[in-house]
Specification:
Helix content is 38%, strand content 26%. It is α+β, with helices and mostly antiparallel strands. The chain has a four-stranded antiparallel sheet. It is built from two helices and four strands. It has a single domain, classed as MutS, DNA mismatch repair protein, domain I (3-Layer(aba) Sandwich), CATH 3.40.1170.
Length: 53
């Protein structure tokens, strides 16, 4: 999933990337912080990146 996010972020650097994972959507890194500030969703700190879902 992280590789997919990196490829999409390179292609669309000014967009917030949401990745569908089953019935939910995930955001990673800066996009997760943006969504957290807008909707106050909980952020998970993982070893290499920040995730929100």
């Amino acid at each position: 999933m992280l590789e997919k996010y990196i490829k999409l972020k390179e292609k669309y650097p000014k967009s917030v990337i949401l990745i569908k994972a089953g019935n939910f959507y995930d955001c990673i890194n800066d996009d997760a912080i943006i969504i957290n500030n807008l909707f106050n969703y909980k952020i998970k700190q993982l070893s290499k990146y920040i995730r929100l879902g």
